[in-house]
Amino acid sequence: MNSTRIFFILACLSFNLSGQVTSSTKNNGNLILEDIPPIPDEIVKELNRFQNVRSGSFRGFTNSGSELFISTRFGNVSQLHLVKTPGGARKQITYFDEPIGSVTHQPDGELIAFTMDSGGSENAQIFKLNPNNGSYKLLTDGKSRNGSPTWNKTGNQIAFRSNKRNGASNDVWVMSINDPNSAEMILAAPDGTSWGAIDWSKDSKKVLIQNYVSITDSKVYLVDVETKERQLVLGNPNKKSVNAGLSFDNKNEGIFYITDEFNEFKNLAYKNLTTGEINLITADIKWDVDGFAIAKDGRRAAFTVNENGFSSLYLLDTNTYKYKKVSNIPIGLIGGINFNEKASMLGFSLNTYQNPSDSFTLELRRSPLIYGKLIQWTESEVGGLDISNFISPKLITYKSFDNLEVPAFLYAKESKKPLPVIIYIHGGPESQSRPSFSSTFQLWIDQLGAAVIAPNVRGSNGYGKTYVGLDNGFNRENSVKDIGALLDWIEQQPNLDSSRVVVYGGSYGGYMVLASAVHYSDRLKAAVDIVGISNFVTFLTNTQDYRRDLRRVEYGDERDPKMREFLEQISPNNNVEKIAVPMFVVQGQNDPRVPVTEAEQIVASLRDANKTVWYMNALNEGHGYRKKENRDIYQQAVILFLKEHL
């Protein structure tokens, strides 16, 4: 018996003799731990290397076009930095206690508009920053939820989203960058709906605005800034389809956008606003387009495609609509693509299973489809880990109860003995597990000797509009059955130990963890629920007003008696008697998406039923932990929990 296990048993004996909840705090009282034994020093030491990993994500070019802004963390949270040359020093520009959110750059100017919230509340504020001297100014009211700051072409105004009118409506406003008091609402959104600015016309008289209804339904409107009149320009009012606006063309004659209106996947398209003609640019690519940027001169654009979870980068000639795949990009995930002012470089972040996000540029030639060298600007630290030992993801598929093929990524090292398994279930539910860098996965493989499987159960994004809709409404538990089918698949694998399986997931993935524990406790060893939904009715009642109707589209409307009965029936908190595995519940006090009450009620129910449950709650976090000091202790506690139960 190893020393960690002996320590754990002794700690549990001393903790639980009284039968009462034992509570302790960390990080100046901001992190509350209930019924979690003290973490042994050896675990803290073992995890140190894995917890000192940084990224250097691309955040745009300076106005000169020859230097980069990146975000990286040297303290507790990520901040904005400047890098002047490839491999050069990272000069810190912002020094806040909270992480920087979105970053957008003033056209033909030096200023930056960025967002930042407090304590994970997601009530983001918009700030104006001068990166030359670090001075900044708050532009919004400091209380409401704001986002999507979008510059006009001359750089003297921004359009942005805000719920300051009533807390429930995501209205669209415009503001002079030099006068916050000039803010004027140009679109009053119905309660609970989501609207946001995309782009301005050249003359600053009109704004393209996105209306997001659900993962399968979105439309784009053109709004006159002066008259407030709006015109539907993308999407069919009588038919659901994705229509994600991207940008006006350089002549303001039409719009580039992403749509699945005409086939199964999200295509890049162009619509002429005068004739109404639509050109489906990527009809031959049978995967989703998920990123886009257009150069200032409008002659070329770039886009990314999600191909079975992996990213591909393409260059586009906007005059001919011809495109070309960039061939010299390492296999991984690409994000944040953007051109410099002269369109001589394309910048982006690249993330692989061996490396966290780093900033790269691609040299561009005069012809829109010709490119040169790929240059790496940052090389982020990986805590002294030997990345050659990292286990690469393998794409697999397995059949579910109805013969649906479910894709998943398997991380498993060579072993003479069958490996215990951690099933990692993503949130969303319309998200997607992709083969990105994960120090957590590599930590589990190294410290626990486990295999990791990240399934993309029905309802996941990236596999077409039919697949993403297979879990809606009354089909909710079919996605849970996909986990049951994965357990069947594990039983058939000689290198995996089906008697030692744990489920782990966050947000909707947390619900999936709880539901898996309800249905498959006899096939599991333990479960880790992070900011998960424990009861859909209470979740829909208590989630923030601006989110409620958006979530009803996905989960069902609890105001309908039949749907309410169904949601109550499948909610884990109403089926606690079926849970027979130890549970670790992790929560952020300020979570606006899945309120803290979801965690509190499942923990209370498990305790009332004399089930084993550990509980961690961070008072200065929201929907997940963003502060390093909290993440470190959370990861240490998870390892302690898994070492005992796996």
TrEMBL record:
It comes from SAR86 cluster bacterium. InterPro entries: 6-blade_b-propeller_TolB-like, AB_hydrolase_fold, Pept_S9A_N, Peptidase_S9_cat, Peptidase_S9A. GO terms for biological process: proteolysis. Keywords: Hydrolase, Protease, Serine protease. Residues 101-233 form the Peptidase S9A N-terminal domain. This is S9 family peptidase. GO terms for molecular function: serine-type endopeptidase activity. The lineage of its organism: Bacteria, Pseudomonadati, Pseudomonadota, Gammaproteobacteria, SAR86 cluster. Residues 435-646 form the Peptidase S9 prolyl oligopeptidase catalytic domain. Pfam families: Peptidase_S9, Peptidase_S9_N.
